[in-house]
Amino acid sequence: MLALAAILAAAPLIIGLYAYVGYPLILWGIAGVRPRRSPTSQSAPWPSVTITVPVYNAQASIGATLESLLALDYPRDQLQILVISDASADGTDETVRSFADRGVELLRMPERRGKTVAENAALAVSRGEILVNVDSTILVPPASLKKLVSVFEDPTIGVASGRDVSVGAGNNQGTHAESSYVGYEMWVRDLETRVGSIVGASGCFYGSRRHIHGKPLPPGLSWDFAAALVARKQGYRSVSVPAAICMVPRSAQIRTELRRKVRTMARGLSTLFYHRSLMNPLEYGGFAFMLISHKLLRWLPYLFAPLAYIALCVLAIDSVGARVLLAVLSAGLLAGVVGIRRRNSTPTRPVALAGFVVAVFTAGFLAWWDALRQTQMATWEPTARPDGQNRPVGIAR
Asked: Smallest Cα–Cα separation from 312: which of 20, 19, 14, 11?
């Protein structure tokens, strides 16, 4: 009994250490002995591109995003900007229509059915050889689109993911921790690119060959994750493009991030289960190893965390060391709850960071709960951002 409790208590830590430390070290070792691929140079004419911007009630941010897209350095006759409104009800559509004389097109869904359904519908009215998906709250610097699209000169590449750069004026240390995590994730994707292929793209800014989207995706799944998986099934690899940056505003509150993470992780888990055949190493080799390590093993600690806490309570009955560890962990949980609930004042750095960690683990467990119950997470709410974070001036950061 005690041996089982010890295994359960240690499982999240051991799995997490491998997924977040061991796996990148393995990638780093492999990448170190492989020659770097020569960067592609755009010798052929620029391909036609459709930028799709799925939105729901994004009136506060869509104007600045469209201004940044209209300022992109790309041949205008080869660029289509298409906004897909998921039956927005806040004036978003009117704002988008005000850009019609500058070439921006609007596709309004007759009823709200979620982001993936909107992205599926976009294929019928898009004209580009390359489809580039952009989040409605981000800003894309002028040079980024050419950087992203140029990699498709390599015929082995099916999906290209931009580099998220977290920006914002907020002083919340918990959301600054989110910024640090984004930087870590971009580093891991760079290593995966050097080894072979990334296993998921950035939902904020990524591009893919048109035929990868030929088959509609079920409503509860995520195209940004699924695109790399579908590409692998079609024989393509997916890459991260460090020079193709996009500016992603940080959320003002940890609780906002918690709600977003529940939704994105639940959809990610559902997407992984839907494409579970790609985790078969006998058929997909190194890609299966990377998919398991980067996705499944990152998410498993969230599922095991409550069991680990209960197991630690059992061990604490007979072990002084376990009691000390339980007391420290319980104090951290309490501090995390305080950090999440603070509204009108800025918590201290330790409390804010504890809040971020507790929010991540809470979101992860709730995401597993939703995914295992097959709860539909098709629709979405726009993530609240602090005032002023979406103005074009943010590009200069």
From this structure: 11
C-beta separation of 287 from 196 below 8 A: yes
Q: How remote is the C-alpha of 353 from its chain's centroid?
A: 21
- Coil, strand or helix: which one is 11? helix
Asked if residue 215 lies in contact with residue 51, where contact means CB atoms within 8 angstroms, the answer is: no
* Strand-strand pairing, 205-209 and 157-167: antiparallel
CA-based nearest residue to 244, from 215, 212, 205: 205
Statement: the pTM of the whole predicted model exceeds 0.70: yes
Q: Could you write out the DSSP letters of every residue in 330-347? A: HHHHHHHHHHHH--SSPP
Task: Give the C-alpha separation, 265 to 269, whole Å.
Answer: 6
Q: Say what angle helices 223-233 and 254-274 make with each other, to 10 degrees.
A: 30
pLDDT tens digits for range 352-384: 777 778 888 888 898 898 888 876 555 656 555
